Amino acid sequence: MMLIPSVLTAALALLPSTAFAVNKSASELTSYNPDTLPYNGTMNFCIGAKNDNGACKSTDDYLADLNALANYTDSVRTYATSDCNTLENLLPALSQASHNFSAYIGVWPTDDAHFGQEKQALSQFLPKYGVNNIKGITVGSEVLYRNDLSASALADRINDVRGLVKSFGFDVPVGTADSWNLWAAGAGDASIQASDFIMSNDFPYWQGQNTSNMTNTFISDTLTALDRVQHVKGTNNVQFLVGETGWPTGGPSYGEADTSNDIAKQFYHEALCQILKKGIDVYYFEAFDESYKGTDSNVEPHFGAFYSNRVPKFSLNCTQAS
Ligand SMILES: *[C@@H]1O[C@H](CO)[C@@H](O)[C@H](O)[C@H]1NC(C)=O
Ligand SMILES: *[C@@H]1O[C@H](CO)[C@@H](O)[C@H](O)[C@H]1NC(C)=O
Ligand SMILES: *[C@@H]1O[C@H](CO)[C@@H](O)[C@H](O)[C@H]1NC(C)=O
Ligand SMILES: *[C@@H]1O[C@H](CO)[C@@H](O)[C@H](O)[C@H]1NC(C)=O
Ligand SMILES: *[C@@H]1O[C@H](CO)[C@@H](O)[C@H](O)[C@H]1NC(C)=O
Ligand SMILES: *[C@@H]1O[C@H](CO)[C@@H](O)[C@H](O)[C@H]1NC(C)=O
Ligand SMILES: *[C@@H]1O[C@H](CO)[C@@H](O)[C@H](O)[C@H]1NC(C)=O
């Protein structure tokens, strides 16, 4: 009996550390029996660059974030490199936390001046800290959804960042994150072509879905996005993950979607724990409530899985709902 865990551990250690879509087509995954899957996806968290009071996070603030998350994950996602000195302050924290963390770091691709500052931060801090703790670089977040750039202009920026990173001698996956429906509609094909990985964002709350329909909406939308990525890449073996999802615990309803800790918990344990069993990694948006984003009358400050004091709002353990 004692042999089984070590055999499993050895097998798991051979799997690539980067995200991939279990090598099965989206349609196979729709009806996939999770008990026969050789591995699960992992739950991870998006973290903001500012503290609850709106001040930029220091390395110590990131360390406190990571240590609060350490029982649940070993990876986080951030959004910019130069803004709030995110890269400079985050990178040392990743290896100093109570266990070793990795991160998907973000680069803001618009406008030209901002993109230049972001690349400058990469040039300064990747050679300084190395890339061992960097899982990938997302160029842009919902750029296509906001119509900030065309899919081919975003592809150019993705290639630009990959070239820059390679020029330092580093080989780091470079991709992007956008709303599931843009991927599904084929509006981002040129960006998919240019990306080493694709993140799909999906918030059934913003689709006005109630508790009866939120889980099937999430699973179906995510697999529809995956299907398009597999189609464009011409293989099922793609790096695909959920880049943002979550449910607000306060603020107003949106359509039939209400807000509460109970609904967020139900969404987490039904929808997200289920997609993990399909082998897809999730980055939950977001780790901590951010009061500076607004008041109780809007939802933005209430997306945290944890309160802003870094106490979890509900069980985050997929094998133990309460
Ligand atoms: C996925 O399948 C391809 C083709 O059969 C194979 O080369 C690759 O190693 C597989 N990847 C994983 C993660 O199983
Ligand atoms: C995947 O996670 C489930 C719990 O959600 C667990 O029962 C199962 O053993 C896990 N599978 C693997 C291969 O680790
Ligand atoms: C992590 O889990 C351990 C064991 O359950 C517990 O003692 C500790 O307080 C937890 N740490 C945090 C930061 O939640
Ligand atoms: C931390 O993890 C990364 C990859 O996840 C690895 O490359 C690095 O060597 C690890 N660092 C330490 C100190 O274990
Ligand atoms: C959720 O919405 C669906 C479709 O509108 C409806 O059939 C169902 O009764 C609703 N469930 C709840 C709990 O409101
Ligand atoms: C419930 O979710 C399914 C699957 O995403 C969708 O087809 C259906 O339109 C949704 N129902 C409502 C009332 O939105
Ligand atoms: C999650 O729950 C399982 C089952 O109760 C337990 O064995 C495990 O230690 C828990 N993990 C954490 C991080 O609390």
UniProtKB/TrEMBL annotation:
It is an enzyme of class 3 (hydrolase). Coiled coil: none annotated. One of its GO terms (cellular component) is fungal-type cell wall. The keyword Signal applies. It comes from the Eukaryota. This is glucan 1,3-beta-glucosidase. It catalyses: Successive hydrolysis of beta-D-glucose units from the non-reducing ends of (1->3)-beta-D-glucans, releasing alpha-glucose. Keywords: Cell wall, Glycoprotein, Glycosidase, Hydrolase, Secreted, Signal. Residues 1-21 form the signal peptide. It is found in: Secreted, Cell wall. Its main location: secreted. It comes from Schizosaccharomyces cryophilus (strain OY26 / ATCC MYA-4695 / CBS 11777 / NBRC 106824 / NRRL Y48691). Its EC number is 3.2.1.58. GO terms for biological process: carbohydrate metabolic process; fungal-type cell wall organization. Pfam families: Glyco_hydro_17. GO terms for molecular function: glucan endo-1,3-beta-D-glucosidase activity; glucan exo-1,3-beta-glucosidase activity. Belongs to the glycosyl hydrolase 17 family.
